[in-house]
Amino acid sequence: MSTFYKLAYTSAGTLIAGIAMTGCASHNYDFAAAANGPSRITQLVDELDRVNADEEASEKELYEINLFPLVHSHLHVFAEGDDEDSPAEFIEADIDSYLPLFGFVNGTISQYDGDQQLITQHDFDSSLWGAFGKHRELITTPSGIRETTRHTFLWLFKWQGKNRWHAITDLALGDEAKP
Predict the structure, then answer these.
(1) Is 78:92 a contact under the CB 8 Å cutoff?
(2) Cα–Cα distance list, 120 to 116, 137, 163 (Å)
(3) Long-range Cβ contacts of 29-35 (<8 Å, 24+ apart)
(4) d(Cα 32, Cα 94) in Å, to the nearest integer?
(5) Which of 46, 92, 97, 140 could form a disulfide with 105, with the two C-beta atoms 3.0–4.6 Å apart?
(6) Is 0.70 surpassed by the pTM of this model?
(7) How is residue 98 annotated by DSSP?
(8) pLDDT per residue over 81-129, tens digit each?
(9) What are 77's strand-pairing partners?
(10) Hey, which residues does 97 pair with through a beta bridge?
């Protein structure tokens, strides 16, 4: 093979790798600027109403995406629920992944009712392409918040963790249940 072709293949490979490794970001809302605590969901709902009021807007959700291909991606979305069978009026997802190189994924998916109160929250952590994992689910009931956990070890062994109850009086509305 001539030197010209070797140089051409090397340059093309370097160019393709450089383009593939270029990070990008897109957002229509800065979630880091949102207040923490019970008023946070109210603030997100107000901002979502503002975005949805714009007739010309193609997006009907608040989102923030950061992508560094083959290494890291972060997705944060807040949107209206669209499932007619679910009481969830709003859904929020915050997911971080280090795929495919490192095999780590973690995130939280929350559903809120029309009064902006938490209905369910799913937290998940997965390491080494799912070999090890933990899934925590919080479900709001009239008597409190039920917390269940599931664990995975080496893809084959899965077991249920402890079920815990958090009485409503122990938590302020909008607070996260901490084990």
Answers:
(1) yes
(2) 12, 7, 15
(3) 29/62, 29/63, 29/64, 29/78, 30/64, 31/62, 31/64, 31/76, 31/78, 31/94
(4) 12
(5) 97
(6) yes
(7) E
(8) 877 777 788 888 999 998 877 789 999 999 888 888 888 899 999 998 8
(9) 63, 93
(10) 73, 105
